[in-house]
Design a protein that fits this description.
Length: 339
């Protein structure tokens, strides 16, 4: 039975991290190690983790260096055949690792197995909507458009995937890196792009909803605007080793990126940012309203409603819209499993 190394970067997550760790301990797949990386967290996050006495848990401390460095630390200490990352405010369904291990064991060309995700709010309550990314035949262009995994807590990876992209940030050190620590936003997408372009491994999803992704309005809205700059940095880095891909896809991809950024701004209740970014997206490519009419028009409408309406009225309208969206998504998934 293959071992799974679960890596949990922790920084300022005392409100949620105990539930995250508990969801990992409740996994039906038992051959795991849990590496909790204390990234210099100034709050009581690690004290919350220390309540668990399971021998599979190991707490590793480092100075605050950011999520990329924390994940790298976890990878360097990992003993497993498969690696899984979970953010310190997200939750896994108990069968998650079991399903992914089965998928990877039966799919020798797949290096990254991921799932659909359900969105929850800061209180852990279901929003009744889902991240439903493309599951198969994922191309490099898909990664230039968006994050095919949906979020950083969705994927399970073969060890060989990271061995294939290892690099040294400093020629004077013996330590290998896997995530680029210069990226503090979109660091996961930058890594997934290198995997897709530089290795033989395939990305493939399974249709079950196995991850609960927390949408937290307390998240810094400034990171949303930073993401635009970081997409430019990703393009610049990718151009250094795959210029033809950037030349072919960058302009078209930017419209999708901005549209998805507006969706995230709506989730974080940042109305002015949502309006600004969705307008930028449509300036890049107004045909988004034709090629992906439902997602684009819904993002446009929600952005303006959030910006213009009193919050109390907006939340009533949002509830109705999200209820309808969730119904459509559930119906689609039921149809898939009914085939």
């Amino acid at each position: 039975m293959k071992k799974v190394s679960v890596i949990i970067p922790v920084y300022n997550a005392e409100k949620y991290v105990a539930l995250t760790v508990k969801s990992v301990l409740l996994q039906t797949y038992k051959n795991i190690e849990i590496l909790i990386i204390d990234d210099g967290s100034p709050d009581q996050s690690i004290q919350a983790c220390q309540q668990f006495t399971d021998p599979r848990i190991k707490i590793i401390r480092q100075q605050n260096k950011g999520v990329s460095a924390a994940r790298d630390t976890g990878i360097r200490h990992a003993q497993g055949d498969y690696f899984a990352f979970i953010d310190a405010d997200d939750i896994w369904i108990p069968e998650k690792l079991e399903k992914h291990v089965e998928h990877l064991d039966n799919s020798p060309n797949v290096g990254i197995s991921f799932s659909r995700s359900a969105l929850i709010n800061e209180l852990g309550q279901s929003l009744n909507i889902y991240q439903m990314p493309k599951l198969k035949e994922i191309e490099v262009s898909d990664l230039l458009y968006t994050n095919p995994l949906g979020n950083g807590s969705s994927g399970v990876f073969r060890r060989e995937v990271f061995e294939a992209i290892a690099f040294k940030e400093d020629s004077n050190t013996e330590e290998y890196c896997y995530f680029d620590t210069k990226f503090t936003v979109l660091e996961d997408i930058e890594c997934w792009l290198r995997i897709a372009i530089q290795t033989i491994w395939k990305f493939e999803g399974i249709p079950e909803v196995l991850t609960l992704y927390r949408v937290n309005p307390e998240s810094r809205s400034g990171d949303l605007l930073k993401a635009i700059d970081y997409w430019e940095k990703i393009d610049e880095k990718t151009r250094s080793y795959a210029p033809e891909l950037i030349d072919k896809w960058k302009h078209q991809a930017m419209a999708y990126r901005l549209r998805d950024l507006a969706r995230e701004a709506v989730r974080r209740q940042a109305g002015s940012i949502a309006v600004k970014v969705i307008n930028q997206a449509l300036k890049f490519n107004w045909r988004l309203l034709l090629t992906e009419p439902l997602t684009t028009s819904l993002t446009l409408v929600m952005s303006y409603l959030l910006w213009l309406m009193p919050k109390s009225l907006y939340f009533q309208v949002e509830h109705l819209i999200l209820k309808a969206k969730g119904f459509i998504q559930k119906h689609k998934m039921q149809e898939e499993f009914g085939r």
